[in-house]
Specification:
Elements: E1 11-12, H1 14-26, H2 31-49, E2 58-62, H3 66-80, E3 85-89, H4 96-109, H5 113-121, E4 132-136, H6 151-162, E5 166-170, E6 192-194, E7 199-200, H7 203-206
Parallel strand pairs: 1-7, 2-3, 2-4, 4-5, 5-6
Length: 207
C-alpha cells in the first residue's frame, strides 16, 4: 500500500506574496505574463467547478488595480469559452498591467476598453443578474475601511448572494485584510476564493 501524499501549502503575508511575484519577475517572467497566467487558471477553475452556474451568464466586477486586471483576463477567457460575460468596471484601470488586461478584454469582446469602463462605471451600481458573480474589486493591497465609492458595489454583490448567486473571489474577497483576516464592514463574503501563488494568511481565519 502506498503512503498518502501530503502537499505543503505555502501561507504568506501580503508582503511575502509580493516578494514572491517580484522574484518571479526578476527571474525573467514579465508581470503581465503572471497576470495572464493567474486569470487564465482562474477562468479554468470557474469553468470546471461552476459549470452549472454559467447558463445565465457571469457578472465580472473589476477594480482599478491589478486585482481588476486579473478580472479582465478572467472575463476574456470566459468569453472565449462561449460564456456570456458582463464586465463591470468600478473605475478605469490604473496600473499598466491592468490597462493591458482591459485592452485584451476589449479586443476579445469587440468594443472599446475606455467606453466599457466609462459606461459601466457611470451606472453607479452594477445590475448583477447572473447566477455567478466574480469579485475582482480589491486584492492584497486593501487595508482598513472600504472606500466609499466601492461600498455600493460590494452591497450589490451581497444582494446577488442573497438571491442565490454564487460569489467567486479572485485572490481575496474584497474588503478582507490579507494579513489579519479582518473583513471590512460591508466586505464581500465569497463562496469560493481562487487565490494566486500562495495562500494569504488572512484567508485562514475567515474560511
Amino acid at each position: 500500500m502506498s503512503a498518502p501524499v501530503s502537499r505543503a501549502l505555502r501561507v504568506t503575508t501580503a508582503a511575502e506574496a509580493r516578494a514572491a511575484d517580484e522574484a518571479a519577475i526578476a527571474a525573467g517572467t514579465p508581470s503581465f505574463a503572471l497576470m495572464c497566467r493567474a486569470g487564465t487558471e482562474a477562468a479554468a477553475r470557474i469553468l470546471s467547478r461552476h459549470a452549472d452556474g454559467l447558463f445565465a451568464g457571469v457578472d465580472v466586477l473589476a477594480g482599478r488595480g491589478n486585482n481588476g486586471g486579473d478580472a479582465y483576463i478572467v472575463a476574456a477567457q470566459l468569453h472565449r469559452a462561449g460564456v456570456r460575460v458582463r464586465l463591470w468596471a468600478a473605475a478605469p484601470p490604473a496600473t499598466a498591467d491592468a490597462q493591458r488586461a482591459a485592452a485584451l478584454w476589449a479586443r476579445t469582446a469587440g468594443h472599446s476598453a475606455g467606453d466599457q469602463a466609462m459606461s459601466e462605471a457611470g451606472t453607479g451600481v452594477p445590475q448583477l443578474v447572473g447566477a455567478l458573480v466574480v469579485d475582482g474589486l480589491l486584492g492584497t493591497g486593501h487595508r482598513g475601511a472600504l472606500r466609499p465609492e466601492l461600498q455600493p458595489w460590494c452591497a450589490a454583490i451581497h444582494a446577488a448572494r442573497a438571491r442565490g448567486a454564487r460569489i467567486v473571489a479572485l485572490d481575496l474577497p474584497s474588503g478582507l485584510d490579507a494579513d489579519s483576516g479582518t473583513l471590512s464592514d460591508g466586505g464581500v463574503l465569497a463562496h469560493h476564493t481562487i487565490t494566486f501563488g500562495t495562500l494569504k494568511r488572512g484567508l485562514l481565519p475567515q474560511r
